[in-house]
Amino acid sequence: MSRSTVVVHGATGIQGSPVVRPLLAAGHHVRAVVRRNSASGLPAGAEPVFADLSVPASLADAYAGADAVIVQLPLVFAADAAVPQAEAVLGALKGAGVPRAVFNTGGPPVTEPTGVPFVDARALLAAELPSVVDVAAVVGPAFTYMENLAGPWSLPLVAAGEIAYPLPAELPVPWLALDDLAAAIVELVTDPAPPPLRIVSGPQALTGDRAAAELAAALGHKLRWRTVEPQEYERMLAPHLGPEAAAGVAAAYTPPPPGTPPPPTPDPALIRTGTTTLHEWATRQDWRS
């Protein structure tokens, strides 16, 4: 797809803004979906368009005449909102006759509903997307993001010499930079025949101690890894994300009950490996809290 009109959800957010910049640089017309009075921070050249996921008509207006839509659902966990938002997007895509859509799941892609509205909304959108657009692609990280280590809930601790995260220290984690996820999304938007599913992984699988060493080398001071319980992580997140989102995010890190079968290993052909190392990423961040 050459220079086209692309609608981007979450364009002012941490995941959407890295997608807007390369699209603009490639000459695409970007419509940035924003809530009212929230267009500040958009890159120059992006056109803000108001849309509300709870108002399907506003989505249809935002999508009218678009060549592609990049969908990202917000951190909504309430049963009466999460799934209806996914349904509204699907209805608007179909109603506006959008020919192509890329759905960024925001977390490891899911294929089956679980009874958790946040997950079920994503499973629904991923499953139904091919039935409402001609070209559909779903993309998500293999695990988690480097940017979580620089979130406002983490910055003071990192400055004090500690990474507090709800993952076992011995677990090798393929930390992913959001710029690498954005590059994969832009590829899917412009690929004449994109794969229906793309999983994006970081270039290194690092244990907690190794991740701490990589950050320490970049920041120039000692760091240690400390595994925290999901409940503690929830308390860290709550002042910044709000109680509902904090509880939902923390729940995603709760280990499954004993005996739960592990998730299937993804087909290696579906995986795109990013190029940004944790050390390289860390040198580009503003670590002032």
N/C terminus separation = 41 Å
Q: Give the oligomeric state.
A: single chain
Domains, number: 2
Please indicate the percent range of residues in DSSP E strands (runs of 2 or more).
15-25%
- Tally of alpha and pi helices: 10
CATH architecture of the largest domain: 3-Layer(aba) Sandwich
Low-confidence stretches: none
> Which structural category fits the helices and strands?
alpha/beta
Q: Secondary-structure element sequence? A: EHEEHEHEHEHEHEHEHHEH
Query: What global shape is seen?
Result: globular
Mean residue pLDDT? 93
Largest sheet: 8 strands, parallel
CATH class of the largest domain: Alpha Beta
Number of strands: 10
Q: Helix amount, in percent?
A: 25-40%
CATH homologous superfamily of the largest domain - what is it? NAD(P)-binding Rossmann-like Domain
Radius of gyration: 19 Å
**Largest sheet strand order:** 3-2-1-4-5-6-8-10
CATH topology of the largest domain: Rossmann fold
Summarize the topology:
Blueprint: E1 5-8, H1 17-25, E2 29-34, E3 47-50, H2 56-63, E4 68-72, H3 82-96, E5 100-104, H4 117-132, E6 135-141, H5 155-159, E7 162-165, H6 178-190, E8 197-201, H7 208-219, E9 224-227, H8 230-241, H9 243-252, E10 271-273, H10 278-283
Parallel strand pairs: 1-2, 1-4, 2-3, 4-5, 5-6, 6-8, 7-9, 8-10
Helix pairs in contact: 1-6, 2-3, 3-4, 8-9
Structure explained in plain terms:
With 289 residues, the protein is α/β, with parallel strands linked by helices. It has two domains: 5-141, 3-Layer(aba) Sandwich (Rossmann fold); 146-172 and 204-263 and 275-283, UDP-galactose 4-epimerase, domain 1 (Alpha-Beta Complex). It has ten helices and ten strands. It has helices at 17-25, 56-63, 82-96, 117-132, 155-159, 178-190, 208-219, 230-241, 243-252, 278-283, and strands at 5-8, 29-34, 47-50, 68-72, 100-104, 135-141, 162-165, 197-201, 224-227, 271-273. The strands form two sheets. The protein has an eight-stranded parallel β-sheet, sandwiched between helices. Strands 7-9 form a two-stranded parallel ribbon. Helix 3 links the parallel strand 4 and strand 5. Helix 1 packs across helix 6 (178-190).
